[in-house]
Amino acid sequence: MLRMTLMAGAALGGLAVATVFPSIPETTRSLVGLPVPPAVGAASARAAAEKGDGHNHAEGGEHAEGEEGHIEMTAEQIEAAGIRVASVGSGVLVSRDAVPGVLAASQDRQARVTARLGGIVAEVRKTLGDEVAQGEVLAVLESREVADAKGEFLAAIRTAVLAETTLARETRLWRQRISAEQEFLQARAAAEDARIKVDLGRARLAAFGLSETEIAALARQPATTLRRLELRAPIAGRITARNAVLGAAVAADAEVFSVADLSNLWVELTIPPRDVPMARQGQAVLITGDGEARVEGKIVFLSPVLDPETRSARAVAEIPNADGSWRAGGFVTAHLSTAEQPVDVLVPREAVQEVEGNKVVFVRNEEGFELREVALGREDANGYEVVFGLDAGTEIAVGNAFSLRAELSKSEAGHAH
Prior knowledge:
By secondary structure, this protein is an alpha+beta fold. Helix content is 30%, strand content 34%. It has helices spanning 2-20, 26-32, 38-52, 75-80, 144-175, 181-207, 212-216, 402-415; strands spanning 70-72, 84-87, 89-105, 110-114, 119-124, 131-132, 137-142, 228-232, 237-242, 249-250, 255-260, 264-271, 284-288, 294-302, 313-320, 331-348, 353-355, 358-364, 368-373, 375-379, 383-388, 395-399.
């Protein structure tokens, strides 16, 4: 009876203690015979489930999820994705003023193909927009005048050959005292005259547009080709104008084709009075077009004379256009630098991405990239100042970084079961 009374008292005491001190560990409760609360058992079950199974894919699961904000990529994968990595450092922010401009073909890289004499268009080998190499045949004219010029040149060559032969014979006979000096002098004068006619004929053909190679090959050509005159491209470029029509008559000095080298373009600018003091020849200028199109150019001409009415100055900037993405005649905006501000950490605009409303960059590490939130300060058309979150010398993705943002979004969506 006494033992039962003591056991009942101990149970009531333990229940009171458990009520007053609910945070007693589960092990201690078991030792003193206290019941384990259901909430504690449920938490233990959840912890066991999270440790060994569930969507976190820990040990025993299908795969282990990397730390949030990390993207695993090998060097080969980075190169294949076109991601450009560079170390960040100090730089200069440039304040700019916008000036409207118009793209135009460079006057230093244009050529007009004209007919040096009248004729009929016998062949047209190139049309508008075609790319041509220097010296390539654009069209063929048939002209009576060029036939006469070629015939006279060939006749002059034959006469010159005969005159040289006669001169050689008379020289030999005169030195042997067989012929008179008068005959030698006459032969020498005839040879000299023949050489002059050959030179005049060659110069005339060159004036018609024939090259030295074409002139040298005339003697080997059939007579039916003497009336043909080939119009060739004086420079490499693209056909921008064509006035040749098959069978049509072409007058002398008429423009038949226009060729322009569009690998470099001019930007015609009108600098307003407020920006004239800051513009100078040789100055770098940023050119922007539709969308994200942008390119660095240089002012190659700045008029020393202002417009008397607007007080503005005409300027010409030159930009590279090797891929043909810029088109002559299009409207662009030129950004002239007006002030410069040095900063400790400067990153390109393309390197900064937005993830969940935060400005971030992707830092290169041994496994690939990791997301790094940054605080931005001042900015210009090319980059941002980083005031917090990034040190100079850190390697980050500075080109095609948006693909990393897409990869991160895809990875997060795949794990959001």
